[in-house]
C-alpha cells in the first residue's frame, strides 16, 4: 500500500489568480464587480449563459463582490449582471476551454436596470492557475491542420506534436511531455480516466474517439495541484463534442490509394494499398414533433467513424534458403569478398588445448543427407522456391504487408440535458470495434507466415452531473466505465504441428506451428511461425466527487476519487516452442573475430543444433486493484494583489 501526503504551498501571485477548476475537462469564469467608486458590489445577480445551447446558471456576487462559475463545459458564454440602481451589463462572447478560465471584471454604472450596457468582444483567456499550465487545441485548429492518413485510425493524441514540451516522436503510444517517463500520465475522456492503462497508459489509440468526434483536446503540464494525483506531472483532456440549438452535421473521408504512390526501388511492382477513413457527425437539439421540444434544454451529438484498410504484398526483397542450401550443400555460400564461408561439424567439437574448442569443417562444405534432421526435412518441404534462385540473400519478394486487413468502427453519442438553472447532466457512450489480420514474416503462406487475427472491442461510458446548492456552494460528480477486450488468435492453433513434425515432449502444446528463427552470419532466412496467442480483458470504474465552496476571500475545494481496475488474461503463446538457430553452432569456437562470420544459421537448423529454445504452459491471471484519494485545497485572496494557495492530498493504492 502506497500512501502519499502532499501539503502544497502552491504559489503566491503578484496579481489575482483563478480559482481551482472543478474538473479536468471543464473551465471556469470569475471576476470582481465594483461600482464607479471602486467599491465591491455584493449580492449582484450574475447569469452565465452558454450561447450555443442557451443553458443558464444563476449566481450572485459575495460580500467581497466576487463571483465564480466553475465546471463550465467548453463553449462560448454570455455574462449578464443586474443590480438595482445600476445599468444592466451584458458581456459576450467569453470563450471557455478545458482547464482554462476567463477573468472578467465589471464596473456598474448608476442607472436603471432596464438600461443595458453591452460589451461585445472575446474576453482574454487566462490560465493563471499557480501550478498547472494548459495548452488547448480547438475544433477550428484541428480542422485546419488535418493529420495524414497512415496505417491505422488517426488518433487525437497525435496532435501532441504541436504542443510545447512534447519529447516523444510516438505521440500515439508513448507520449512524453517535459521529460516525463513513458506511462507517467493519464488521458481523461469527458472527465474520467480513459487511457489503455493495462496496455500503454497515456494512449487512447485503440479505445479513443475519431478525431471528428472531438470538441477539444488539451494538455496540462506541471499538474501539481492537490486535486491532481494518481499519475505523473502532466495529463491530457479529450472532450467529446456536444449538440447545440442549431442542427449541424458533416460527412468526411480521408483517402489513400497505391495509384497515387511511387514504386519503391526494390519492389517488383507497387504494393496494393486501399485506405479510407470516413464517417459522419450530427448534433443539435432533441426534437420530437408534437411530443418533445428540447431546444434550450436537451441536446444530442452522434458520430460514426470508419477506418478501412486493405494492403497487398509489400514486395520488398527478403531472404529464404536457396535450393542447394536446403540439400545441405554450402559449397557456394560466400561472403562479400567472394570467399567461401566454412561450415563446421558440431559433432566433432573437441578441446584445442588452449582453453577453447575446435571443430572439423564438413568435407566440401556439404552436410551429408543422413545428418539432416527429420524435423528439418519436413519443414523444408513446406518452403516455396526463391523468386531469385541464384541469389543467396534478398531472393524472395515479401508476400505480405503488416496488416493486410485492418478496420475500425467508432460509434459515439452524447446527450446533454439542463434539468434547471441549478442542475445539469451529461451522458456519453462510445463503442469501438477494431478487427485486423496481422502478417508478421513475409512468407505469405500458412503455416510458415504465422497469421494472427485480432478483434479488439472497447466500450466507454461517462456520466457528468453538476448541481448548484447555492451561488457559493457548487458540486460536480463524474462516473466512468471502460471495458477493453483484446484477443490475439494464432490461426494454426489446434492443428497439431509439433506431432506432425516430430517435436515431442512439450506438455502445454496447443497445436500451433512452432516459431523457427535464425540469427547471425550470412544468409540468415526469414522467421517461420508465430508465438502470439492470448486474451486480455480489462475493466475500469472511476468515481470522482468535487465540491467547491466560496466563503469570503476563500475558494475552497474538497474532493474524493475511487478507481477500480480489473484484469483477466490468458497467456497461450509459445506452447509449441520458440526455437532459435545461430551460425555459432556451425562456426569455429576458437576462430576469434571469425566466430560471428563463419558458420550458417540455416546449416545449424538442418543439423538440429538449437541455439536457444523456450516454451510456455498456458496460464490464466486475474488481478484487481483499487485506488482511493482525498484532497482539500484553498485559494486565499489575502489582498487584491496577493493570493496564497495551499492544499492537502491523500492517496492509497491497494495491493492486487
**Count of extended strands:** 36
Give the overall average pLDDT. 85
| Spatial separation of the terminal alpha carbons | 10 Å
Structural class: mainly beta
Under CATH, the topology of the domain at 13-130 can be stated as Immunoglobulin-like
Q: CATH superfamily name of the domain at 13-130?
A: Carboxypeptidase-like, regulatory domain
In DSSP terms (H or I, runs of 4 or more residues), the helix count works out at 5
CATH class of the domain at 13-130: Mainly Beta
What topology, given as strand order, has the largest sheet?
A: 1-36-35-32-31-29-28-27-26-21-18-17
Overall geometric form: elongated
Roughly what percent helix? under 10%
Unreliable spans are 1-22, 123-131
Range of strand content = over 45%
What is the C-alpha radius of gyration, as a whole number of Å? 33 Å
Describe the sheet with the most strands: 12 strands, antiparallel
Oligomerization status of the protein chains:
single chain
Overall CATH architecture of the domain at 13-130: Sandwich
Summarize, please.
The chain is mainly beta. Helices cover 4% and strands 46% of the residues.
Q: Mind explaining what this structure looks like?
A:
The chain starts with a strand and ends with a strand. It has 656 residues and is mainly beta. It is 4% helix and 46% strand. It is built from five helices and 36 strands. Among the domains are: 13-130, Carboxypeptidase-like, regulatory domain (Immunoglobulin-like, Sandwich), CATH 2.60.40; 317-397 and 578-609, no CATH class.
Amino acid at each position: 500500500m502506497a500512501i502519499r501526503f502532499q501539503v502544497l504551498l502552491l504559489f503566491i501571485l503578484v496579481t489575482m489568480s483563478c480559482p481551482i477548476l472543478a474538473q479536468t475537462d471543464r473551465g471556469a469564469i470569475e471576476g470582481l464587480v465594483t461600482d464607479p467608486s471602486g467599491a465591491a458590489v455584493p449580492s449582484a445577480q450574475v447569469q452565465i449563459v452558454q450561447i450555443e445551447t442557451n443553458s443558464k446558471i444563476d449566481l450572485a456576487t459575495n460580500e467581497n463582490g466576487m463571483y465564480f462559475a466553475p465546471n463550465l463545459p467548453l463553449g462560448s458564454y454570455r455574462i449578464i449582471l443586474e443590480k438595482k440602481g445600476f445599468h444592466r451589463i451584458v458581456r459576450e462572447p467569453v470563450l471557455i476551454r478545458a482547464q482554462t478560465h476567463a477573468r472578467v471584471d465589471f464596473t456598474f454604472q448608476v442607472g436603471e436596470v432596464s438600461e443595458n450596457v453591452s460589451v461585445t468582444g472575446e474576453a482574454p483567456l487566462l490560465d493563471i492557475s499557480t501550478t498547472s499550465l494548459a495548452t488547448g487545441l480547438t475544433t477550428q485548429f484541428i480542422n485546419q491542420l488535418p493529420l495524414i492518413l497512415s496505417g491505422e485510425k488517426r488518433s487525437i493524441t497525435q496532435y501532441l506534436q504541436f504542443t510545447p514540451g512534447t519529447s516523444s516522436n510516438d505521440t500515439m503510444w508513448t507520449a512524453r511531455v517535459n521529460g516525463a517517463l513513458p506511462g507517467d500520465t493519464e488521458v481523461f475522456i469527458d472527465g474520467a480516466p480513459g487511457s489503455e492503462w493495462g496496455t500503454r497508459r497515456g494512449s487512447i489509440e485503440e479505445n479513443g474517439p475519431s478525431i471528428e468526434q472531438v470538441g477539444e483536446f488539451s494538455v496540462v503540464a506541471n499538474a501539481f495541484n492537490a486535486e491532481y494525483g494518481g499519475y505523473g506531472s502532466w495529463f491530457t483532456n479529450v472532450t467529446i463534442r456536444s449538440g447545440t440549438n442549431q442542427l449541424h452535421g458533416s460527412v468526411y473521408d480521408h483517402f489513400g490509394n497505391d495509384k497515387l504512390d511511387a514504386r519503391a526501388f526494390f519492389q517488383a511492382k507497387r504494393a496494393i494499398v486501399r485506405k479510407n477513413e470516413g464517417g459522419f457527425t450530427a448534433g443539435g437539439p432533441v426534437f420530437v414533433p408534437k411530443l418533445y421540444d428540447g431546444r434550450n434544454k436537451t441536446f444530442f451529438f452522434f458520430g460514426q467513424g470508419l477506418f478501412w484498410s486493405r494492403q497487398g504484398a509489400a514486395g520488398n526483397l527478403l531472404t529464404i534458403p536457396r535450393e542447394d542450401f536446403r540439400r545441405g550443400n554450402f559449397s557456394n555460400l560466400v561472403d562479400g569478398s567472394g570467399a567461401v564461408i566454412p561450415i563446421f561439424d558440431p559433432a566433432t567439437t573437441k578441446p584445442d588445448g588452449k582453453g577453447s574448442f575446435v571443430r572439423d569443417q564438413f568435407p566440401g562444405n556439404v552436410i551429408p543427407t543422413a545428418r539432416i534432421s527429420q524435423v528439418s526435412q519436413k519443414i523444408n518441404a513446406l518452403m516455396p522456391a526463391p523468386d531469385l534462385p541464384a541469389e543467396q540473400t534478398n531472393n524472395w519478394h515479401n508476400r505480405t504487408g503488416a496488416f493486410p486487413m485492418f478496420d475500425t468502427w467508432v460509434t459515439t453519442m452524447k446527450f446533454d440535458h439542463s434539468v434547471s438553472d441549478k442542475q445539469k447532466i451529461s451522458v456519453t457512450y462510445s463503442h469501438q470495434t477494431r478487427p485486423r489480420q496481422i502478417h508478421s514474416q513475409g512468407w505469405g503462406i500458412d503455416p510458415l507466415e504465422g497469421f494472427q487475427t485480432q478483434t479488439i472491442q472497447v466500450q466507454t461510458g461517462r456520466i457528468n452531473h453538476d448541481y448548484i446548492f447555492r451561488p457559493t456552494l457548487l458540486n460536480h460528480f463524474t462516473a466512468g466505465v471502460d471495458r477493453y477486450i483484446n484477443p490475439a488468435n494464432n490461426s494454426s492453433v489446434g492443428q497439431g504441428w509439433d506431432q506432425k513434425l516430430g517435436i515431442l515432449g512439450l506438455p502445454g502444446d496447443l497445436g500451433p506451428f512452432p516459431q523457427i528463427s535464425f540469427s547471425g552470419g550470412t544468409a540468415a532466412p526469414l522467421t517461420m511461425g508465430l508465438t502470439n496467442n492470448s486474451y486480455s480483458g480489462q475493466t475500469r470504474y472511476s468515481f470522482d466527487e468535487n465540491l467547491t465552496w466560496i466563503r469570503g476571500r476563500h475558494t475552497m475545494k474538497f474532493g474524493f476519487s475511487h478507481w477500480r481496475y480489473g484484469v483477466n488474461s490468458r497467456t497461450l503463446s509459445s506452447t509449441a516452442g520458440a526455437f532459435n538457430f545461430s551460425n555459432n553452432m556451425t562456426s569455429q569456437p576458437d576462430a576469434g573475430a571469425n566466430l560471428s562470420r563463419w558458420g550458417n544459421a540455416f546449416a545449424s537448423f538442418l543439423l538440429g543444433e538449437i541455439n536457444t529454445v523456450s516454451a510456455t504452459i498456458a496460464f490464466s491471471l486475474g488481478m484487481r486493484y483499487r485506488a482511493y484519494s482525498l484532497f482539500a485545497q484553498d485559494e486565499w485572496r489575502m489582498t487584491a494583489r496577493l493570493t496564497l494557495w495551499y492544499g492537502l492530498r491523500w492517496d492509497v493504492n491497494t495491493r492486487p
